[in-house]
Amino acid sequence: MKRVEMKERAPLERAKDFNPVTLGYTKEEAVKEASRCIQCKNPLCVEGCPVGIRIPEFIKKLSEDDFAGAVRVLKDTNDLPAICGRVCPQETQCEARCIIGKKGQPVAIGDLERFVGDWAIGAGMSAGESVSKQKRPKGRKAAIIGSGPAGLTCAGNLAKAGLDVTVFESLHLFGGVLRYGIPEFRLPGRIIESELRYLKSLGINFVSNVLVGRTLTIDEIMKEYGLIFIGTGAGLPNFLGVPGENFNHIYSANEFLVRLNMMHAFDFPQYDTPIYIGKKVVVVGGGNTAMDAARSALRLGAEEVTLVYRRSENEMLARRVEIAHAREEGVKFMLLTQPVEFLGNEKGFVRAMECVKMELCRPDDAGRCSVKPVAGSNFIIPVDMVIVAVGLLPNPVVPSLTPELKTDGHGYLVVDSDLMTAVPGIFAGGDIVGGDTVIEAMGMAKKASEAMLRYAADK
Questions:
Q1: Residue whose C-alpha is closest to residue 118's, from 167, 74, 163
Q2: What is the spatial distance between Cα 160 and Cα 302, in angstroms, rounded to a whole number?
Q3: What tens digit of pLDDT does each residue of 164-219 get?
Q4: Closest by alpha carbon to 38, among 1, 75, 90, 84?
């Protein structure tokens, strides 16, 4: 049986707004796709999931029309299924291990997870209907710093274990990178709000506008809660380090996407957001953030968006589906190309970019090709806006204001095998310790929450 493909909006239609690209399964489509799962006795797909979702079990419930049962199985290990079903790289994790995929297309695990998550939202299922909360140990509390995927996962696990949990967020809305780093067409804000409502139904307390380190210190929080998880993510952009990078209208992808999401630039004309969009926009990078930035610039009115990447498409870190969507919508790709200098006009605004062609070298031990410049291949392309999407470093605020927390040479918090920092009782996970994806951050948070419960039990 062929895989049931999820329907999508037409490229030329969706490239004009920020409404969702993919439309989700109907009930009939979800049940049909779920019936493709052969219920392996040794399910390798579970091994490929960083949070250990019991995948065959929830798919079996789905195939039997027991949608509420599927929700209960999913929520037992993952409080954010509607989010994960949209943004996780299933093709390199759970679906990459699917036995059906050895001879054909793997079961669409991510799409089925999204369907179940959306169904739970539509049905208004609360925590009381989907999980059995344990009896709360008297006086046991925990503080979570940061409300991104790691913080929310850790908070959910600790709340389900009976702890009194408070999440602190420095911004006015919760969700971290989910809220501010991913465009609406991939992850609508209403989905984040729905998952947050579910977490609140677990009894979690959310406090916004608290910049830990400034508003409250780690010491003050530790005295009140006795147990802390830090999930403050990556908020420090990398740049290319080439001449002219300080010209106006050159942005980091982090700044561009945060401004877009925080100030509702996606919601035009209802919001008149002060965000510049050039006619000829170049995005530098090859990851999901680069694709998000390029596709967003196109939607905001850029006449031409070109993605410049120094390796070939095979080496791009972005999901294949996001690369395909970007191409379909009109983003141009300039591969094996590296910017070496930005050129500006007399008023200090970028007007052009000098690039050099690159060639691939032998793959390294990890199988990824390095590159080297082709001598004499320099050329100049006109641009009036550049978005640099070449990665982020850990958010430095909490570590820089808490000297007892140890960091490595790149600013990542140093943790032990239980993800506990150099300070007893303070744990960490996600981008602040080196997690790359939403689901990896969640996997770290799950592991840390289990270690936090053991630590608390020993006290």
A1: 74
A2: 46
A3: 999 999 999 999 999 999 999 999 999 999 999 999 999 999 999 999 989 999 99
A4: 1
- Taking the CA of residue 117 as centre, how many other CA atoms within 13 Å lie in the half-sphere pointing to its CB? 27
Looking up tokens 């561009």 gives 256
Helix H, strand E, coil C: the string for 138-185 is: CCCEEEEECCCHHHHHHHHHHHHCCCEEEEECCCCCCCCHHHHCCCCC
Q: Are strands 332-334 and 234-237 parallel, antiparallel or unpaired?
A: unpaired
Task: Tokens for 445, please give them.
Answer: 């948070």
| Largest separation between any pair of C-alpha atoms in the chain | 71
Return the SS3 of 343: strand
Note the helical H segments in 8-136: 11-14, 27-34, 44-47, 55-63, 67-77, 81-87, 109-123, 127-130
Place of tokens 């809220």: 179
Q: Residue 381 in contact with residue 277, Cβ under 8 Å?
A: no
Instruction: Centre a 10 Å sphere on the Cβ of residue 1 and count the other Cβ atoms it contains.
Output: 10
Q: Is the pTM of this model over 0.90?
A: yes
Contact 398, 404 (CB under 8 A): no
Enter the DSSP assignment of 65: T
Are 383 and 280 in contact by the 8 Å Cβ rule? The answer is yes
